[in-house]
Amino acid sequence: xxxxxxxxxxxxxxxxxxxxxxxxxxxxxxxxxxxxxxxxxxxxxxxxxxxxxxxxxxxxxxxxxxxxxxxxxxxxxxxxxxxxxxxxxxxxxxxxxxxxxxxxxxxxxxxxxxxxxxxxxxxxxxxxxxxxxxxxxxxxxxxxxxxxxxxxxxxxxxxxxxxxxxxxxxxxxxxxxxxxxxxxxxxxxxxxxxxxxxxxxxxxxxxxxxxxxxxxxxxxxxxxxxxxxxxxxxxxxxxxxxxxxxxxxxxxxxxxxxxxxxxxxxxxxxxxxxxxxxxxxxxxxxxxxxxxxxxxxxxxxxxxxxxxxxxxxxxxxxxxxxxxxxxxxxxxxxxxxxxxxxxxxxxxxxxxxxxxxxxxxxxxxxxxxxxxxxxxxxxxxxxxxxxxxxxxxxxxxxxxxxxxxxxxxxxxxxxxxxxxxxxxxxxxxxxxxxxxxxxxxxxxxxxxxxxxxxxxxxxxxxxxxxxxxxxxxxxxxxxxxxxxxxxxxxxxxxxxxxxxxxxxxxxxxxxxxxxxxxxxxxxxxxxxxxxxxxxxxxx
Length: 539
Description:
By secondary structure, this protein is α/β, with parallel strands linked by helices. It has helices at about 25-40, 50-60, 90-95, 110-115, 120-135, 150-155, 155-170, 185-200, 215-225, 245-255, 265, 270-280, 300-310, 335-345, 355-370, 380-390, 435-450, 500-539; strands spanning about 5-10, 40-45, 70-75, 100-105, 140-145, 175-180, 205, 230, 295-300, 325-330, 395-405, 415-425, 425-435, 460-470, 480-485, 490-500. GO terms for molecular function: (R)-citramalate synthase activity; 2-isopropylmalate synthase activity.
C-alpha cells in the first residue's frame, strides 16, 4: 500500500448547502448509518450553533452507536474582540457532546479585511484562541483553513501564518480549503508541498468543484502529502458542489493503491451513492463515474463483441469492485452480440444463426426507428426477448379502458379510470380515481390484479417522463413515455410510444407490472431452490 488516507464526509453539512438538497433529521440519521458502514473516518453532522435541527441530530446520533466513524460538529472561530469561552458557537459545539470539532478560520487577507472586517493580528488571535479552547475541553480539533489557496496566492506569508497559529494551539488536523473552487491541480500540488514543509501537523484537503476539478484537486493534494480528504457523496454542495467522494475513494484505492476502506466496503459504494440520492430526492446522473447506471454500459456492437471475450477491452476496472454491474444496451446500433449478452443474462439459449434471432434484431431496430428507446428501458427489452422466444407467460390482457376527466370552477381536476382485463380466463372490471390519467389507470389495474398477485402492493412507480418526438406536429406529435418502477429489492424501466400519451403510458405501465410479476416469479423460484437445498442438507 502507498499509505492510508482518512475520509471526512460532509454530505450532512456542506452537501445540504447544494441547491435542491434538504435533509430532515431522520434523513441525516439514515445517511449517517450508511456512511459509517461504508467506513468513512469522520461524519460532519452539521453546525449546532446555527439551527435546532442540527442540535437534534447530534443528540439522536448518539443512539446509533456507530462502529467506524467519528461524528464531528462544525463551527467558526470565535467572534472578533470576544473571549473564546464566551463564544456561543464554540460552546454549542462542546455542549452537543461530540468528540471531534471542525472549525474554520480565515486564511486570505482579503477575506479578513472584507468579510469579517478585522485586523490580520486579531484574525490570528481568533484562530489560536478557538482551537486552544476546544482542545482544553478535550476535543479532537480539525482546523479548516478557509480560502487557503486563494490566500496563499495573494499573501503566502500570512496564509502560512494562519495555519501555524492553528498548529501552535494544538490542532490535530490542518485542512486546506479551496473554498471558491478555482485552483488548478498543479497549483494544489505546489502549495500542499510548501505546507507540508511548513507544519508538522497532518494535512487534509477540502476542494470545491467550480472548475470541475474537485476530484482531481483532491487526488493532487494526496499525492503531495495530504492524508485526509473532505468531500460529499455524489458531490453535493454549494454552487457546483464539493469534491465527489464516490469518485475519490475508488481512485485512491484502486488507481493509486492507498488504503482507504475495506474491499467489502468498497463493494457497497454504488449502493451508498444511490441510497443517498434517493434520500436527498436528487437525480443521480447515469454517466456518473464508477456508480452510474451507464458507468459500465456498452452500446456499440463491436464493443459488446469484445467485452464478451474479455471485459478489460472496454472497462477500466471490474464493476463489481465498486458494487456496480456491466450492462449492454440494445438500440439501432446493436448487433447480435448485444442480444446474445442480454439473453445470457436471462439464462436463454440464444442461437445467433437462428432466423428468429435475426427477425428480433430487425424488430428492435424498427421499433427504435418508430421512437422506442430500449437502452433506457431494460425491462421492456427483456419482456420483448422473452416473448419472442416463447418464454413469457401472458398473465393478463386488456379488453378495454376508459378515462374520465372532470373540472369544475374552484375545484381540483378529478380523474377516474375504468379498466376491463382478463386474468386467468376471468374478466375483471374495476374503476379507480387518481391524481391524473396514468395514476388512475395504475390504481384501477391494480384493483383487478392484487387479488391474484398480492405481491404487487410492494411495487410503486418512482418516475414518469414524457418526451415529444416530432415537435413539428405540435399537439398531434408522437410521444415516448418512460416509467421507472421500484419495489423493496429492484428498480426497472419500461417504455411506450404512441401519438396518444395515454396509450404510450398504458404500454409502459403494463410492461412495468408484467416485469414486476416476472421478478416475483424468479424470486419465488430462487426461494424454492434454497429450501430444496436445505432439505437435501438436512437429509
